[in-house]
Amino acid sequence: MLSTGFNIVPFSWVTLPAATELENRVMDWLGKMLQLPNCFLFSSGGGGGSGGGILQGTTCEAILCTLAAARDQMLNKIGRHNICKLVVYGSDQTHSSLKKAAQITGIDPNSFHDIATSKATNFELSPRSLLLTILSDLESGLIPLFLCATVGTTSSTAVDPIGPLCQVAKKYGIWVHVDAAYAGSACICPEFRHFIDGVEDADSFSLNAHKWFFTNMDCCCLWVKDSTGLIKALSTNLEYLKNKATESKQVIDYKDWQIALNRRFRALKLWLIVRSYGVTNLRNFIRSHVKMAKLLEGLIAMDKRFEVVVPRTFAMVCFRLNPETIFNPKLHENGDHSEDQMNELNQKLLESINATGQVYMTHTMIGGIYIMRCPVGTTLTEERHVHSTWKLVQEHVNTVQGALDGNIIDHEED
């Protein structure tokens, strides 16, 4: 209400210095909580060309801005006519915002490479697979440009190995962006910080405070090691935007770090969250969510009708009905059920649960498997909610299994 009611227009430092300075401050606060290298912080230098942070609207904007910066840096070296040779890399689990950003920045659709992952490696992006793809592209005369590594993928919260991926990418001059939209917030806890080890070798890093940092939409935190690329790719300096403060090169004009000219007063929201809760309470909230997700994971493991499809890393549990036990043993031995049938059964179960209006869970398809996803992530969630959710799931699977057993009896009579 405050940020909307003030209705400020902080696109340049001069329009409201306090808004820019507050944003500089809270981005450094959060950066220090995450133990980001000093090269990502304003406090390490400040002013034109150094690192620092900005509050974007969403991850889509953060990736688009960094990709535009990487593109222009490369084209200034090789000539703008070679844009058709640039290649963008991610995994098949990378958020769709990367592909959209590639489309918007003019990358050839055939030069967007989503590298396959597998259940055997928990759907992480393999550094070896990345290297082989890069070498193949180089042989084809293409130019590697940008890699998006993910900490906490959308489908299953998989964590790409940042350090090893950066080692591969840096050999070929590739801009590395780390997308930690969901799971990055957990890294303010020392026990989770290792998930972003290697970030010192990345060029940019982002997380969504409006996901697991209790901040209202929209609030995406983006840090860059060197803001020069962003400023050159995104700045506009028409006469009516010129002023002495900007010309001094001693202030930050956030209009040159983002897509739009104007912007909302997002810093006030993040400042209030940090000042209201404090670092200790924020860490305890996150830890409590992980603990409750671990509780749910344990409840699922005790019911042989279900399986946890991928290991729980943070506070989201990915599970489904277990085909080994949910189908009639005879039919299972004879292979008379398909993965499609299993997927349909899980879909019906999820729709039945959500139709009650008591809980709402989402789904994904990963490795051809339909998975139900249950995240824990709000300030008011308690263990009793986890138990009641699990009880509801069990009640509905009894109904679904009853219908399935009836169909099996009809099948055997036929």
UniProtKB/TrEMBL annotation:
GO biological process terms, semicolon-separated: amino acid metabolic process; carboxylic acid metabolic process
Keywords in alphabetical order: Decarboxylase, Lyase, Pyridoxal phosphate
GO-annotated cellular components: cytoplasm
Listed cofactors: pyridoxal 5'-phosphate
UniProt-listed InterPro entries: Aromatic_deC, PyrdxlP-dep_de-COase, PyrdxlP-dep_Trfase, PyrdxlP-dep_Trfase_major, PyrdxlP-dep_Trfase_small, Pyridoxal-P_BS
Keyword hit for Lyase: yes
The protein's Enzyme Commission number: 4.1.1.25
Enzyme class of the recorded protein, top EC level: lyase
GO MF term set: pyridoxal phosphate binding; tyrosine decarboxylase activity
Residue numbers carrying N6-(pyridoxal phosphate)lysine: K211
Record flagged with keyword Transferase: no
Database matches in Gene3D superfamilies: Aspartate Aminotransferase, domain 1, Type I PLP-dependent aspartate aminotransferase-like (Major domain)
Family listed: Belongs to the group II decarboxylase family.
PANTHER family: GROUP II PYRIDOXAL-5-PHOSPHATE DECARBOXYLASE, TYROSINE DECARBOXYLASE
Subunit (UniProt): Homodimer.
The protein, known as: tyrosine decarboxylase
Organism of origin: Macleaya cordata (Five-seeded plume-poppy)
Source species taxonomy: Eukaryota, Viridiplantae, Streptophyta, Embryophyta, Tracheophyta
